[in-house]
Amino acid sequence: MSDLVDSHMTTNEGEDTVHPVAVIDIGTNAIRMVIAQVFPSGEFEVLERLQRPIRLGKDTFSRGRIGAQSMRSVVAILRDYQAVMNSYGVQQVRAVATSSLRDAANADNVLDRIYLACRLNVEIIGIAEEGRLTVAAVREVVEDLPEVNQGKTLIVDVGGGSTILTMLQEGEIVNSIGLRFGSVRILEMLSLQSEPPERVAEVLQQHIRTQIANVERSLTLQDCDTFVAVGGDVRFAARVVGHPTRSEKLFVVEKDQFRSLLRQCSRHTPNQLAHKYNLPFIDAETLLPALMTYWELLCRTSAERVIVSQVSMRDGLLLELAREATGRKDNALQEGIVRAAEAVGQRYRVDLDHARLVAGIAIKLFDFLVADHGLGPRQRLLLQVAALLHEIGGFISASAHHKHSYYIISNTEIFGLNRLETQIVAHVARYHRRSPPKPSHLDYMALSREQRVIVNKLAAILRIADALARGNVRQAEDVEFHHEADELIITLHNIENLVFQKRAIAVKSDMFEDVYGMKVRLQE
Question: Is residue 14 predicted with pLDDT exceeding 80?
Fold first, then answer.
């Protein structure tokens, strides 16, 4: 496998060109940059990795905002990075920020300051998007491990502000959750700086165990027999007590070795750890809470060792950009998004049989109407997720459940979807019944015109699919679509009585007729 690059590279006609690209990660403890070159084959080579420490999370998690001094430091670091990028002739950059800016009240001011000073657009990504990028990189390097392709695997990434847990079953993503729970956030919350090491370890252990007990309501950790860890703190453990594997990107730390290292670290202050292991203080300070989190999660699985991956979210960014440049798709990741949506539905007691039927019919109609709506594979996926979750609001109340669906989805991190995509899914689910969008719907009007058009096209399809998934309809294969003049003709096979579907179509077809300019006619 290659190392892992930016999307929008160009190839001159008749000539294969390679352009240096860069990804920047504005994190909780540091600002990191990777410069790489991507080849026409989709492989890439890392040219340089840079890291500058800055404790943005300390500002955010203690005061709720980024301070003026930190803001000036961010700009200074990014200007230095620009000089490095210029020396390589970098033409494409993707810059992202995680929890330190995600949770800061003045995040928009920081982004504006960066843009004015550096002409750099920084994208704040959600926990789900952060997890998707990390898992994409990890799966590339562990795919040949037999233990990952058999049984259940837990991938754990403990960051400064959040922890991301992803479960694989026989190598395929089945669930992923993100927690507002990380090493820097823990330290700022507990304020243990003046406590002796023994007391610090005791309080940390109690706090971390409480948080992980909540996790076990969503993930069956004890079923996992393989444990893969990602992050700078666990990479330290691999350097100190781990041993290499056949892959230069993977190390193994045995469970008893991990326990021994953790006990040693718990006896020292951050200053002592920095001196003992020759670490920057900013890294030594987060070491114990991070390692404790990995350890407590490991102990709740049946795994006997930790597989430490040397890749990170930045490698996922590079990998994604390389795939976009070469037109490759990660089909396994798309399937993981669908399974993650189903897991969210299960959490809120959605009737998954009905939801899958609606999704199947909706996708079939989407494919039939490609020439009419002009949307692509990503919007098709958003429609599928919206169909799976359209009745999730029933968890709150059957009355006006479409509005509750919007609320739940818009406030839920769905693995693999960014914030905007989640909002589109929420709106599509919102309009699966009752009133179509109106100018008085402020959340809808806050979307851009392009986004509103996407919502309208997908919601119109979902309304038809939901209307058809009634009575004796059991599978999408029983539904057939074709055009006739300005009508959409829907034929239902193997169905004797269409009374339920006809009533529902009469109520729900208005939006479809407005959006697509076709009347809907149902026939046996």
Answer: no
